Amino acid sequence: MNHVFGPVYSRRLSKSLGIDLVPFKTCNQDCVYCQLGPTTCKLLERGSFCNVGKIITELKQKLEQVSPDFITLVGSGEPTLCKELGEVISEIKKITSIPVAVLTNGSLLFQSDVRNDLVQADIVCPSLDAGNDYTFQRVNRPIPTIDFDTFLNGLIQFRREYHGQIWLEVLLIKGITDTQEEVVQIAQCAAQINPDRIHLNTVTRPPSDISITGLTLSELEEFASLFTPTAEVIAEYPTVSEVITSAKDIQQEDILNVIQRHPCSLKELSFALSVSEEMLKPVLKDLIHQDKVEVFNIRGRELFRYKNK
Ligand code: SF4
């Protein structure tokens, strides 16, 4: 398994080099909106999943080729489930000054070992998709030992101990968290966490539960002012003027490495790999023909997704 992938354009973190710490779809939640599909390995406890030396070797090689804005621990599941998380962050810090971000569902922050690992990161981006236990169970579908109070108190405790940036992501879903009452509850919980920034998002990629849909941009903008600080609605697309047209050979593996973690439109893939859309098209066609990639339509957007067999 390659741990380092990208860089990919991240709506929150610009040009971000990803490090995947857990095997595909290893998580302690099974969110209805998950773009990776249903959780196939639902874990109760942290485990050992990676060789830190191998990750650092891969990272060093990659950093000789690219200059990302962030190194982001993210990927095929929940990174805090990886026992080596703290060691990985401290080893990254020894070889580069590029800021380290961690995208997490936040559900293990009630554990002191997880909080201790994360204090070394420059930015931690936890999720908060509900303001009560009923909605938390409905949207995030956590393992049975985690209820909403445990989850929220973990986030509040982490804020007390952590002096880096907390960027909270709130993802709203049509028909579940699209009412004033639900969003006010989420905003009240967010205020208790006291994050540095709040990012408001919705379903824009193929979700695990295909009956789930997102809110419109104007609905998100309306809800943004209910949060303190006012939430930033996350833009959907990068500024594609940064795309570089390159004549380099396109490796099928590079494409698979990106879309395995993150279903992408042609435009996003073009940005992530710095290759023109026209050059990508025949390679994608070939991957579809090989049954390694499938095309998925969501709200009029065509996305390419890894075909997990
Ligand atoms: S969205 Fe994140 S937390 Fe939710 S199931 Fe997917 S990987 Fe797990």
Description:
This protein has 309 residues and is of the alpha/beta class. The chain folds into two domains: 4-166, Aldolase class I (TIM Barrel, Alpha-Beta Barrel); 244-309, Arc Repressor Mutant, subunit A (Orthogonal Bundle), CATH 1.10.10.10. The protein is 34% helix and 19% strand. It has ten helices and twelve strands. An eight-stranded mixed β-sheet has the order 1-2-5-6-7-8-9-10. Strands 3-4 form a two-stranded parallel sheet. Strands 11-12 form a two-stranded antiparallel ribbon. A hairpin with a 2-residue loop joins β11 (293-298) and β12 (301-306). Bound molecules: iron/sulfur cluster. The site of iron/sulfur cluster has 10 residues, from loops.
Q: Helices and strands in order, then pairings?
A:
Elements: E1 4-10, E2 14-20, E3 26-27, E4 41-42, H1 52-63, E5 70-74, H2 85-95, E6 100-104, H3 112-118, E7 123-126, H4 133-139, H5 148-161, E8 165-172, H6 180-193, E9 197-202, H7 217-224, E10 232-233, H8 252-261, H9 266-273, H10 277-289, E11 293-298, E12 301-306
Parallel strand pairs: 2-5, 3-4, 5-6, 6-7, 7-8, 8-9, 9-10
Antiparallel strand pairs: 1-2, 11-12
Low-confidence stretches: 237-248
C-alpha end-to-end distance: 16 Å
Shape: globular
The domain tally reads: 2
Q: Tell me which CATH architecture of the largest domain applies here.
A: Alpha-Beta Barrel
Give the overall average pLDDT. Answer: 89
Structural class: alpha/beta
Question: Strand-and-helix sequence, N→C?
Answer: EEEEHEHEHEHHEHEHEHHHEE
How many helices in DSSP terms? 10
* Strand residue percentage: 15-25%
CATH class of the largest domain, named: Alpha Beta
- Give the strand order, joined by hyphens, for the main sheet: 1-2-5-6-7-8-9-10
Percent range for helical residues? 25-40%
